[in-house]
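Troubleshooting entry. Yesterday's outputs looked truncated, so today I'm pasting the complete records for two proteins to confirm everything comes through intact. If either block looks cut off, that's the bug. Protein one:
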Amino acid sequence: METKANAITVSALVNAPVEKVWKLWTTPSDIQQWNAASPDWHSPKAEHDLKPGGQFSYRMEAKDGSFGFDFGGTFDVVTETQYLEYTLGDGRKVKVDFKNVDGGTQIDEQFEAESQNPEEMQQAGWQAILDNFKAYAERA
């Protein structure tokens, strides 16, 4: 019997206009600058075809080379400056909302939890990446 994965949400209010936030979120060279949960990790490669049915692959690695993995999947819905929905390679769904809030951008990212790690750890990791994005977007 298959069980439905729990959904976890992470959020941030970015002090930048939604058009800028969208560009920084979806441009591969920018993704490489912010897509890491801690300073000892990085994304040396990011590729995607940003359209429904388009594939994406973001390489995530420890800077010391001790571990790495490809984070990838398929875009299901792409609504420029508003919404992304994608399916990860393992079948989990991710939804990302971008909302204009008084000149800033509210990002709400919801993802289905995986079963390998505690949900608190997953939430902390995804929140750390989102916080990294916020810091990057606000100084870019």
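Protein two, checking that the full record survives here as well:
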Amino acid sequence: MIKNAYFLFLFLLSYSFSCFSQKIIGSSTVAPRMRVIVDNDFSGDPDGLFQLAHLLLSPSVETRAIIGSHLKVGDGFDPSQTQAQNAANQAKELLKIMGIKSNIPVIPGSNTAMPNDSTPVKSEAVNFIIKEALRTDTKLPLYLLCGAGLTEIASAVLTNPQIAGKITLVWIGGPEYPDLAYPPPNYSNPEYNLNIDIAAARVVFNKSSIPIWQVPRNAYRQAILPYSQLLLKIKPQGKTGSYLSGILESLMTRIQKYVNMGETYILGDSPLVLLTALQSSFEPDPSSSTYVLKPAPSINQQGAYEFNHQGRPIRVYTQLDINLMFNDFFAKLELFSK
């Protein structure tokens, strides 16, 4: 009798864990309805790691690959010459912390920017983007989620222009459009992500036909996380919450020696999850965030917009549903930590 009760206990424990896993990583309850490739500078600003953790806990997306990308040469976050490899290593570390054992490839991109807007870089990441875009065995749409420079997607579309109509690019980057918003005080020019690889941005905007959902600086700066919520909603949530909050707290302590950071941090890459995983149920779209359609500008060699009356229409997001984005992340972290 005791033996039977023991096996019943194991069965119920296994069943409970199975039900929980279904809620977090997808099941008949929530099935993937899109494919994504994540391309980000994970050895740079830690907002990319927050975004990646959120995405990996989102069952409506099928993450096909994680690409570690480079920063600007000499960037303070990672001044090394192996930035893309370091970024891939950081993504692998997060997967390890989260205890996620999967077959998602984690691939380093190029460690350098494109030499010009006509010469693609060569990397395994570029090859993967092309191969995934050309798949014919799935009907799930493919999104490339880019929270840094555009080296890999620009190189992929230069290498094989056929992929342009098979990918939607969601990009965190670019300065404000003068008719939509003002830049912040003491703003950087060119904008940080665009400046990582201006030649690549010129390929994507000026030379390709890739559909673009752009989240420029005035929009991604809305993703403000109060330090109080970091302590209350993220830090207590198991190894993942402790790891993410630790990285951010360490960075804020270092920066505080030079700049008074106040009590908030901008998790500017998290809209990549908001605009994909958190689309509306019926007539799927990021329906709680707003955008305008604008002709894609030409980007000049200095990284500035120039009006292009022949530019294809692109989405430029102006207002983001930050409450939905962060509340979903907090809830998923809490479920995952239990």
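Both blocks look complete. Sanity check on protein two: The chain has one domain: 29-224+267-324.
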